[in-house]
Design brief:
Blueprint lengths: L10 E5 L4 H11 L3 E6 L17 H5 L3 E5 L5 H12 L3 E4 L13 H7 L4 E6 L13 H8 L1 H5 L12 H24 L4 E5 H8 L1 H10 L15 E6 L5 E6 L2 H11 L12 H6 L1 H12 L4 H11 L3 E3 L10 H6 L2 E5 L5 E5 L4 E2 L2 E2 L13 H10 L6
Helix pairs in contact: 1-7, 3-15, 5-8, 7-8
Length: about 375
């Protein structure tokens, strides 16, 4: 961006690991805040070394951040950390309840030193009966009913991404930005919290209200009654799969015209209400007609006609997605082993500008000299 980034001049200290806290810090960092990730000396954040489904956590959420090493069990390092926080606008953390308070790093102690401090705690649960429980993304997906709605009946299934951790972090960033605005307007600073379970509850709000309005329990999505006649994944002639949605009467007219199959021009399918009632016969019929074509032909047809569609992709297919590549939607980073890679950008744009990478993934303690050096040399120093 040619103009200053929205959060330029805001300093954030991040105590975090895994996904929820790092996502929050990433949003603030991409928007221009100076985000300083505090890591244990030596090996740093254990998130750097996760394997299997956790392998991508650190490289996905660590760009545009600085890294310092401080040992909170060491009195000298702890005092240096407190001096750093004296120069800070925001602290964010996602550790177990009471962990930082025991070290004098809770909101009460730090805000007494720095009255302008905004402090965000990212937790499993907001204050209430569950607040001391240990939560995971999977736990709250099960607890909220999200897993029930995602899998087939009798087979609750977690989502294919850490949706609650990531969204919980984003809600935390929203709260921080609102609190910064409030601080500017009123001078008031405060302790903020974002809850994993409450995020999951927000995600299932439509299913809750569907039950409240109809008096009937919604069926899990894989077996649920669709609101539209054609809203499905179909197999193609060349062994691929494509999703096509036909959600308006105008789209149905276009679908009939493009597919040019007279058997579909039937009064029984004359309205979406009728099509939805007859899905048991309509969908097998549509499948048999679409199976005459390869996926590229169907993609071209839907693109030309303005119908909602997508080939069924895998996440790694996005490395070569032409839209993301052309629009600035993939950002370059260097993986810990030195290889180049791309990571999706935040899905926002300011005027004609996308947010970019200003700092690559930080090495452990890469910014010790820059950030901690002045504080150690002059204990009263403020950056």
């Amino acid at each position: 961006m040619t103009a200053p980034l929205p959060l330029a001049g805001i300093r954030v200290v991040e105590f975090s690991h895994m996904v929820m806290g790092p996502t929050c810090g990433l949003v603030l960092a991409d928007l221009g805040a100076e985000v300083i990730k505090v890591e244990p000396p030596g090996k740093g954040d254990r998130t750097r070394y996760l394997t299997a489904s956790g392998t991508g956590f650190f490289p996905a959420f660590s760009r545009n951040k600085k890294s310092v090493q401080l040992d909170t069990e060491n009195d000298e390092d702890l005092e240096t950390l407190k001096r750093l926080i004296d120069t800070t606008d925001v602290v964010l953390e996602n550790f177990r309840p009471g962990g930082l308070e025991a070290k004098g790093l809770g909101y009460a102690a730090l805000s007494a030193r720095n009255p302008g401090l905004i402090y965000l705690s990212l937790k499993g649960y907001l204050p209430g009966p569950y607040e001391n429980r240990t939560a995971l993304d999977e736990v709250v997906q099960m607890q909220s009913g999200l897993a029930y709605m995602t899998g087939p009946p009798g087979r609750p299934l977690r989502a294919g991404a850490p949706v609650n951790d990531m969204m919980g972090g984003m809600f935390g960033a929203i709260a921080i930005m609102a609190a910064l605005r409030q601080r500017d307007a009123t001078g008031r600073c405060q302790h903020l919290q974002s809850g994993l379970f409450e995020n999951a509850a927000f995600l299932v709000s439509t299913a809750m209200l569907q039950q409240a309005l109809t008096g009937q329990d919604p069926t899990p999505m894989p077996a649920g009654r669709r609101a539209w006649g054609v809203y499905d994944v179909f197999d193609t002639k060349d062994g691929e799969q494509i999703f096509i949605g036909v959600v308006t009467e105008r789209q149905w007219e276009i679908f009939l015209r493009e597919l040019n199959e007279p058997v579909l021009d039937n009064p029984d399918y004359g309205s979406n209400t009728e099509r939805a009632k007859r899905r048991e016969t309509l969908i097998p019929l549509v499948q048999s007609l679409l199976a005459k074509h390869d996926v590229a032909t169907l993609e071209a047809m839907c693109e030309r006609a303005g119908l909602p569609f997508s080939r069924i992709a895998k996440p790694w297919d996005l490395f070569e997605d032409p839209h993301l590549k052309a629009s600035g939607g993939l950002l370059p980073v260097t993986l810990p082993d030195g290889r180049p890679a791309s990571v999706p950008a935040l899905p926002i744009q300011f005027g004609a500008d996308r947010l970019t990478v200003r700092l690559d993934l930080p090495k452990i303690g890469e910014h010790d000299a820059e950030i901690l050096g002045p504080l150690r040399a002059r204990p009263d120093a403020a950056n």
